[in-house]
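User: I'm putting together notes for a lab meeting next week and I want to include a structural view of one of the chains we've been expressing. I don't have a solved structure, so I'd like a prediction I can at least talk through. The sequence is below, exactly as it appears in our construct file.
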Amino acid sequence: MQPGAPHFASDTRDKPEVEAGHTRRSALIFLLITVMIDSIGIGVIVPVLPTLVSELGHTNLAGAAVYGGWLTAVFAVAQFFAMPLLGNLSDRFGRRPVLLVSLLSFGIDYLVTGLAPTIGWLFATRVLAGVFGATQSTASAYIADVSDAKNRARYFGYVGAAFGVGFIFGPMLGGILGAYGARVPFFVAAALALGNVVYGYFVLPESLKFTSRRRFSLKRANPFGAFIQMRRYTFLLGLLAALLFVNLAIMTLPATWPFFTMLRFKWSETQVGYSLAAFGFLSIVVQGGLLSLFSRRIGDKWTAYIGLAFGVVGFVGFAFADQAWLLLAFIIPTSLGFLAGPSLVSIMSNEVPADSQGELQGAIASLFSLASVLAPIVMTQLFSYFSGPSAPFHFPGAPYLAAAVLSVLGLVGVVRVLETAARKPNAAAGDA
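Assistant: Thanks for the context. Below is the predicted structure for the 432-residue chain, given as structure tokens.
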């Protein structure tokens, strides 16, 4: 038993409730629906945001764009701090209560957003959405509890696929429902979240043993404390640093894709939407299907290597593509790059005990949120500079070349850390 963990005399309370196959499947379905709803929550606001912000801020579209950027930033910052908080709470109180309470609060927040009377209310609700929508760390910890090294990468891939489904249907749902009013999508999203709470209440068992829980510490329940704690585990800090580079590269896509394709290839909003849907569809194929095949055949380590290498190829292709068909062709290797993330998460999860899985997943999710804050700021500025009149040469693909460099740094870092660990006695390095 870990130091500080509560002791219970009853043997039955020391057993996780996830045992039967059908129970595990029901729990997994709930988790995937939860991640999908969180993803929908990010995308559903995109089509209606200009209209809603213009209405509440009493401004034109140019002014609304400024508000929109800040709304995106506050959402990402809230998630950056909330991910490790919820992960640590789940290490103390269990995964089930944290997931259900968060999802209930998320649904209520959608309702309040739909009723927001001022722009200030909208900012407040986006902060709360970032906090209560930060359930991916707890969901990933749950998956780590109920999986083993053989199927963990596959399960994490399912989470990525669920996020991809939400990435497709979130903007689509927002666009379709937005025709009936800018507030309607939020009421529908609230119904989905609250309905999932009811479903989860009946099908989601607890996955974390009572003796595997530990005391809650606010010092550890923040991104910086969580990263400091990760120093205790072999090579995790090196992999986390590499994962930050990878996430920065990935977040370059949603930050710059509409601007890049409209400028370079004169695409319409509809064409941009279809291309983003293609990314979402391929992420489902890669993480929901191919990842399991690769992981079984060659192991997590080599799956991560291959995914990172494909990411480099895809971003270089985007940077220099001079025809639309060539750009579309490079969506395939870029999407194969999605093999890397779940594989790296699986490798890291195998190194951490049960009472710190929530903390680890919170730290990983915070990296993604940090990349969601930094990439739009840096990469849009890079795009603007090399597309403007003051640039030494016209190169709107500059953000994707930068993303390729970040991917190379991530690949080099991962190879160096894992191969060094593999040479040490008794050190795990994913799968050889």
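A couple of points you could mention at the meeting. Residues 16-204+215-423 form a domain with the Growth Hormone; Chain: A; fold (CATH 1.20.1250.20). Residues 269-320 form the longest helix (52 residues).

User: Perfect, that's what I needed.
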